[in-house]
Amino acid sequence: MTDPVPHRRRVRYSGKNPRRFEDKYKEHSPEKYPDTVAKVVASGKTPAGMHRPIMVREILEILAPEPGKIAIDCTLGYGGHASEILPLLQPGGRLIGLDVDPIEQPKTEARLRAAGYGEDVFHVRRANFAGLPKVLAAEGLTGVDYILADLGVSSMQLDTPDRGFSVKLPGPLDMRMNPNKGQSAAALLAQINSDELAALLEENADEPRAALLARKLAGRSLEKTTDLAQAIRSALPNQSEEEQDKSVRRVFQALRIAVNEEFTALDTFLKHLPNCLNPGGRVVILTFHSGEDRRVKKTLQAAYRGGLFSAFSDDVIRPSAAECGANPRATSTKLRWAQR
Ligand SMILES: C[S@@+](CC[C@H](N)C(=O)[O-])C[C@H]1O[C@@H](n2cnc3c(N)ncnc32)[C@H](O)[C@@H]1O
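Above: query sequence and S-adenosylmethionine SMILES. Below: predicted holo structure tokens.
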């Protein structure tokens, strides 16, 4: 007889409910604890390890996915949008999901496979959306009918302390969506000079105190997210706590964009976009800050004027007040679309 496997107690946490991301075991297993997850969502929060898709109704109305058609979700994330689009493409259609994140993407693939989407209808590719034409070629396609890009980071990336994106939770100052590629935010900060950092803070986050902060932060060895947040606050002793918090968010955003080369990827994606759509095909892009939205608006408008699109969203579309109330992470979202 083999020895019984010893029972291992879960690590205790202090207080009634777990506070730390990694202790929220019920939220990490939504299939086992649906009631807990529903309660967290009802309170306006995002359960640990999950991402709530934004503007689903609006996206489905614009894309209007039909059976037999092909969609690319350029930013698969948790698969929230993908799992809404996939059933509408059946029978006969398929969705290709791209993401650069080697940690979350396998989990999302497993979740969608378990939900019944096999290789015949759902392909997953570890790819940057800047390389969209290469993805199409690898799939044997010349164009697709629907493209979705929900820019930025997922809630899983943001909330997992070890990923180093969070302005509140202590973690390594990393911020790479693909931790196997490029340099961490800590490495970038350690080697950047003050002029370069000031330009980066302005360009990537419209930081009004860019020059001052750059002088205080450039070249520093700050290993933890909390070290950087503290260094930013200390650099602004005369500002209110609220203003300091805003600068903390902006500096984190600027570094994240730089580390992941987000604007280069977005510009390349936008340039290829019209050629990647079939005639009549539609694209929807969700942005979360002005640097992204400016690029999307300008490029879609120029492509429309140049005759590459037959229609595009002149006005930005925003999430409803009800959605922002239920999911505060939707608040800054802007939606733009275009049709080939
Ligand atoms: C806002 S989340 C998407 C959430 C998803 N729509 C959902 O409903 O679950 C953005 C995702 O895009 C990925 N991402 C960001 N930039 C990317 C790029 N250039 N190429 C591919 N994936 C990217 C991130 O790793 C992240 O998982």
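The chain has a mean pLDDT of 93.
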